[in-house]
């Protein structure tokens, strides 16, 4: 083989070696610092405009999907229901997300609606969903537990506006 061929092969192997080293450093950095979480914001569906409900409006003026299920509609009670989940302390303090009737999954997993950057939280830690009598928090078998005050949750527990819920070192509160 000629001198030029050997030099080109050496440079090619050197470039391949550096590409491998850079790829390994990128993977290690991702493992050490975790995935980057970008804050989410609620986006209303296209073509839908929220209609304001006048104070003391009749139940017929409120769309059926916004009426409470299983009880008489009361505009004053509906306004007291929590509508947001706010992170009070922990790495994501100040974050707020709207409560959805389908529920909110909370944990370290990227599929969660609220992705916790907390070493004491499980991948699928807890779920907050709308039950027949109001909002309910349920621990999903997490290792370190879900707490309301000093009480560790063992079953699905109803919660109201102002209730503080703790997942590891993160505390969230239901807000209007």
Percent of residues in helical segments? 10-25%
Strand content: 25-35%
- Radius of gyration (CA) equals 25 Å
For the sheet with most strands, the description reads: 6 strands, antiparallel
Order of helices and strands: HHEEEEEEEEEEE
Quaternary structure: single chain
Give the distance, in angstroms, between the N- and C-terminal Cα atoms: 78 Å
By helix and strand content, what is the structural category? alpha+beta
Task: Label the overall shape.
Answer: rod-shaped
Number of strands: 11
Averaging pLDDT over every residue, what do you get? Answer: 79
Arrangement of strands in the largest sheet: 2-1-11-10-7-8
Give the count of helical stretches.
Answer: 2
Q: Spans with pLDDT under 50 lasting ≥5 residues?
A: 56-79
